[in-house]
Amino acid sequence: MNKSLLSQNHILRYTIFMLIAFISLIPIPLVKADAAPPPDPTIGGVGPYQPQKTNVQMMSETVLIDVPASPLNLEEPKQIKVSASFTMRNQGQAEEQMQVVFPLTRLNTGGTEEALYQIDVSSFTVTVNGQPVPITTITTPPEVTASDMDHGFSPDVQWAAFDVTFPLQEDVVLQVEYEMFNPYGEYGEGFTGVAYILETGAGWYGNILSADITLRLPYSVTDEVVRHANPGYVMTGKEMHWSLKNFEPTRADNLEVRVIHVDKWQAILQLRTEVERRPNDAETWATLADWYQIFSIFYPFGEQNSPDYTIDHHFANLTLEARQKVVSIRPEWGNAHFRLAQILWFTNPVVEDRFSYPAKKTDDIQPDDPSIQEVLHELDLAWSYGFDGNVDVGDVESFQRVISNAVPELEFPSSASATATFAGPAQTLVPTATTLALPTTSPTLISTVVPTPVPANKSSDANGNIWLIVALGLITAAGVFIYRLKSR
């Protein structure tokens, strides 16, 4: 293989890697929170928020979180719309007047609230018994861990504050509405992250008697689209609904939901329809498998082609079935055999027990294991048939290194270096998905695979392209030499 071409390829892959690494640092937004009593005046601005004592009880709350159907864009970003209503009652012996607060930023800098929380302050409105009231902004220091301090990350917590009078034994209805920016969709992540923080409601008197929370999505909800959600929800049409009774919320009760982004899910549904209409179309099956694989394999430490990974078995099994279908339709396609080898490796129980995060076993993988030999056989076929431009040489080399590091004793066939060929790029018919960020209580998970565009015919002779690159390089060098002579 031409070393110059390989070097250029490494530079390009490094640039793409740095871009993906930057994007992976952009956290997923969360929708939160409950209204709360004012901060304890003895705490003031010298410590994290603690509620002032009150005899006002939250009798009920009703929350609607509406996720937009339109794709996001940088020019006019769509926003998640939130509407929350709180029925409050003074159970004490005297009327209370206070400055009720509502969080505009997350309370702590780590844990379950690590995701971005960005309210469009201009959209934030409050009514008390149906009458609009003015708001002000106050700040309190955040909850800061040792790790946060080590990284110098300790922004103040911002609150929207508004004055409310609570007469004795009368219901007072607080209604807040706002929009939350959802910027992560602009960068192509495959999930929508939504949450509602209940813990701030614990500052009110007694228990919260009822809470009804509805998440409305832009598509019908099924178990397949829900990556993570608090238990106890009911799915109806496009909605997920939680109903809580007589509880004192803690941080563990905060609602967190991860569902497949509407654009990604619609792409999958459309491809499913296409393969039903054309069951022998290998390219469409391959594209569907690429989308499945995005939601199958994740690297817990953000390093692509790392031996450590996590797996979603539902989508991994769908990926495997689709890859096998492609090979059965078009057995001479080297790309198909390579992609099948990849998913066979990651779904192999022996490999998963050894390298999935956290690992269940530490035993070495035996090179003569039939399932490992099956992976090697598919790679041998891939190298024999060659690859088109939808499989990058660096991707093949990286996957080979993963296997070699996992099974050092394994010997690759001679065809790995002797007959592997790569043609030029093929036509792209589907959107390219980028790295996925999935904030959970476990380490950030990053997707393993970029969707493979639908392949077309191989481009013209690769050697001709190489000579063209060499010629352009010589012309450039000559121009620089002449310029320097004239400059003397």
Descriptive account of the structure:
By secondary structure, the chain is α+β, with helices and mostly antiparallel strands. The protein has three domains: 231 residues, Immunoglobulin-like (Sandwich); 195 residues, Tetratricopeptide repeat domain (Serine Threonine Protein Phosphatase 5, Tetratricopeptide repeat), CATH 1.25.40.10; 25 residues. The chain is built from eleven helices and 18 strands. A hairpin with a 6-residue loop joins β17 and β18. It is elongated and about 85 Å long.
Concise synopsis of the structure shown:
With 488 residues, the chain is an alpha+beta fold. It has 11 helices and 18 strands. It starts with a helix and ends with a helix.
Largest sheet: 8 strands, mixed
Category by helix and strand content: alpha+beta
CATH class of the largest domain: Mainly Beta
Mind telling me which CATH architecture of the largest domain this is? Sandwich
Shape by Cα distribution: elongated
CATH topology of the largest domain: Immunoglobulin-like
Overall mean pLDDT: 76
SS element count, helices: 11
Poorly predicted regions are 1-32, 111-115, 424-466
Integer tally of domains: 3
| Order of adjacent strands in the largest pleated sheet | 5-4-8-2-1-10-13-12
Element string (H = helix, E = strand): HEEEEEEHEEEEEEEEHHEEHHHHHHEEH
C-alpha Rg, in Å? 28 Å
Question: What fraction strand?
Answer: 15-25%
Number of strands: 18
Q: Helix share of residues?
A: 25-40%
Q: N-to-C terminal Cα separation, in Å?
A: 40 Å
